[in-house]
Specification:
Elements (H helix, E strand, L loop, with lengths): L1 H8 L4 H14 L15 H10 L11 E12 L3 E8 L2 E8 H13 L6 E6 L1 E3 L5 E4 L2 E6 L15 H6 L1 H7 L1 H23 L3 E2 L5 E2 L11 E4 L4 E5 L4 H9 L4 E9 L11 E10 L3 H20 L3 E4 L2 E4 L5 E4 H7 L5 H4 L2 H10 L10 H12 L8 E4 L21 E6 L2 E8 L4 H16 L10 H8 L5 E7 H9 L20
Parallel strand pairs: 3-6, 8-12, 16-17
Antiparallel strand pairs: 1-2, 1-4, 2-3, 4-7, 5-6, 9-11, 10-11, 12-13, 13-20, 14-15, 17-18, 18-19, 19-20
Helix pairs in contact: 7-9, 7-16, 10-13, 12-13, 14-15
The structure holds one RNA strand of 73 nucleotides.
RNA sequence: GGGCCGUUAACUCAGUCGGUAGAGUAUCUGCCUUUUAAGCAGAGAGUCGCUGGUUCGAGCCCAGCACGGCCCA
């Protein structure tokens, strides 16, 4: 019995010990979560000051107040070195009993790696020349109950990294860098479009009819309105309504939701840039896209050529353009004779293990073949043009070939990155295309468009000749950060609830 | 949906032939006022993902399940 009681009281676990320590500090009257420390300088400010005028600072110089998380502690008997990090970097500080006093040093000895602290004092150089903050004042700003992962190996388990991204961010500098870069990429895109007189807008994320793409939507229900709503799969039809309304250049950078599989390339919610420009054509968009990518790459990486997963990709110059059918022939190695022969195409598809359903019209068969035979080979930026009408329900028909549309898709590193076209602005043609999509859906294509009568009515008021494009931001960020998985560029990727812990 | 791999201490990982559960870091105690993954001496720390099966005996073998990673569809 006595043993059992001892066992129950035994606090062997690291976290239990820390909780005990925290309670002991609290009982001593130590403020564990104060909110009155004023920061005067970031770590970067301090380092910049040192670089700017090292001769004017030193142990007798002006003090800096800085705060951050303790990432390392080297304790000696009556003094200690710590490293703490704020959003701008890592700095060493030197804590001496004779500087911060008996009580202060006793408190410091009770603290742990991972605690947040505030420090105030001048900087000096250690024996090895490292600039170090000499703490005159040391204050606990937040006590951490749980220990950080190990300092040398850090946090590696991908499941834990995604589920507890905050730990990933604390421990892994390269992860922080990816998300800083992501923010800069989006800012560079925004700057690029604003410079060209575009207006940034926000359109509904919840839509009564999900449109603008071919994808399975998430469905929800609005109680007060008593109606089904769908999380948007694209903002397209709303952005074009705005062009009708006279906003001739609009863009939106926001989330789309698609109720499909999760993989290294797909997250159920992902970020898309869509932009629309009146009196422009899909050809103008290809030019704009090239310029945008070159500008963003240089703004973010300093170069217009990048390295992605061991491949070198060059954004400079004019990118290759090739039609869908030519690409199947030249890049996919498909015999010319087969391209216009439905039976032969179906045979080839079946040979390649491509699943073709009854609902698939010939244009769909061709794009499915393209996905397998050509797309993986498009490493350098390549515009594919000449998409069939039946897979492009919102695109303007080509003047020279009514079976084709004025549309392109951009491929880089074997993946679709962008999709743009001259917008279909003939309301009669649009209505017929919707009807064909409805027929496709009834024939068994779950991704076919719904009829959107309200959109057709909007078109009847007159959409100027317009070109519009969507760019997958996550995939662009992957390219520019050399990330193999989309989860590495989304802060909180979707996962199933963990079965344990 | 299928295939392969993984899940062991807070973290990173070992664990042989099925026979008492290991290391480093972290933590705790002691020493230490210029360290750099500090050092020295000592100590504590485990639902081996979960459930069942085989066995005298399972971290290890078998089955199912959960979660994750990669690949394929």
């Amino acid at each position: 019995m006595g043993y059992r009681v001892m066992d129950m009281n035994k606090k062997s676990d690291v976290i239990e010990k820390r909780r005990d320590k925290l309670e002991a500090l609290r009982e001593k009257g130590v403020q564990l979560f104060p909110n009155d420390f004023k920061v005067s300088h970031t770590v970067k400010d301090i380092k910049d000051t040192i670089d700017g005028s090292p001769e004017t600072i030193g142990v007798d110089g002006a003090p800096f107040s800085a705060a951050g998380r303790m990432m390392a502690i080297n304790r000696f008997g009556k003094s200690s070195f710590i490293r703490f990090r704020d959003r701008t970097g890592l700095l060493q500080a030197y804590i001496r009993k004779d500087k911060i006093g008996e009580d202060g040093y006793a408190l410091f000895k009770q603290l742990d790696i991972g605690d947040l602290v505030g420090l105030r004092g001048p900087v000096f150089q250690t024996k090895t020349g490292e600039w170090t903050l000499l703490a005159d004042e040391f204050k606990l700003l937040c006590k951490a109950v749980r220990p950080l992962p190990e300092k040398f190996h850090g946090l590696k388990d991908p499941e834990k990294r995604y589920r507890q991204r905050y730990l990933d961010l604390i421990m892994n500098q390269d992860v922080r860098d990816i998300f800083i870069k992501r923010s800069r990429i989006i800012q560079a895109i925004r700057d690029f479009l604003l410079d060209r007189d575009y207006l940034e807008v926000e359109t509904p994320m919840m839509q009564p009819i999900p449109g603008g793409a071919e994808a399975a939507p998430f469905k929800t229900f609005h109680k007060a309105l008593g109606m089904d709503l769908f999380l948007r799969i694209a903002p397209e039809l709303y952005l074009k309504r705005l062009v009708i309304g006279g906003f001739e250049r609009v863009f939106e950078i926001n989330r789309n939701f698609r109720n499909e599989g999760v993989s290294t390339q797909h997250n159920p919610e992902f970020t898309m840039l869509e932009f629309y420009e009146a009196y422009a054509t899909y050809r103008d968009l290809m030019q704009i896209t090239q310029e945008m990518f070159q500008e963003v790459a240089i703004a973010v990486t300093g170069s217009s050529s990048i390295h992605y997963q061991g491949q070198s990709i060059d954004f400079s110059g004019n990118w290759r353009q090739i039609s869908l059918l030519d690409s199947l022939q030249e890049i996919g190695g498909v015999d010319t004779g087969i391209l216009y022969n439905r039976g032969a195409l179906l045979e080839l598809a079946s040979l390649k293990g491509i699943e073709i359903t009854k609902a698939d019209r010939i244009g769909k068969v061709i794009t499915k073949l393209f996905d397998v035979l050509v797309e993986p080979k498009l490493i350098q930026p390549t515009f594919i043009t000449g998409y069939p009408v039946e897979v492009s329900p919102l695109s303007k028909r080509s003047d020279t070939d009514k079976a084709l549309t004025e549309r392109f898709e951009l491929f880089i590193a074997g993946r679709e990155i962008a999709n743009g076209f001259s917008e279909l602005n003939d309301p009669c043609d649009q209505k017929e295309r919707f009807l064909q999509q409805v027929a496709d859906r009834e024939a068994g294509d779950p991704e076919a468009h719904f009829m959107d009568q309200d959109y057709v009515e909007a078109l009847e008021y007159g959409l100027p000749p317009t070109a519009g494009e969507g760019i997958g931001i996550d995939r662009l960020v992957m390219l520019l950060t050399d990330a193999a998985s989309i989860r590495e560029v989304i802060l909180f990727p979707h996962m199933k609830p963990s079965g344990k812990k």
